[in-house]
């Protein structure tokens, strides 16, 4: 099914089990180490969907429940959002986006 269905199901399971949502911890990441000029569009899209899209959309779905409980979000990122090395440009971009999203929240 669509990733949003899985997110909604996980959120609902937590709400059913605990009655409210006090904290959301996003700890997600995958990488494909290759030169930036060799990434296909599909590879780029998959990394972005996993590394930043998943956390963004789960935050969006969880927000009303977290607001009611005065809860919080913890996003696990990486030093790669702040530095450059040989781990791949798309991963670095995704982690920088996660860092900025965290500051915005």
TrEMBL record:
Has the keyword Oxidoreductase been applied to this entry?
Answer: yes
Keywords annotated in UniProt = Oxidoreductase
List the Gene Ontology MF annotations in alphabetical order: oxidoreductase activity
Asked if the record carries the keyword Oxidoreductase, the reply is: yes
Gene3D superfamilies on file: NAD(P)-binding Rossmann-like Domain (3.40.50.720)
Q: Which InterPro entries match?
A: NAD(P)-bd_dom_sf, SDR_fam, TR
State the name under which the record lists this protein: Uncharacterized protein
Q: Organism source for this protein?
A: Alexandrium catenella (Red tide dinoflagellate)
């Amino acid at each position: 099914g669509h990733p949003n269905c899985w997110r909604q199901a996980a959120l609902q399971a937590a709400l059913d089990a605990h009655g409210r949502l006090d904290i959301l911890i996003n700890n997600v990441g995958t990488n494909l180490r290759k030169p930036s000029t060799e990434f296909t569009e599909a590879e780029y899209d998959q990394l972005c969907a996993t590394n930043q899209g998943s956390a963004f959309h789960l935050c969006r779905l969880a927000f009303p429940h977290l607001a009611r409980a005065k809860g919080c979000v913890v996003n696990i990122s990486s030093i790669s959002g702040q530095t450059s090395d040989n781990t791949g440009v798309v991963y670095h971009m995704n982690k920088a986006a996660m860092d900025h999203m965290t500051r915005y929240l």
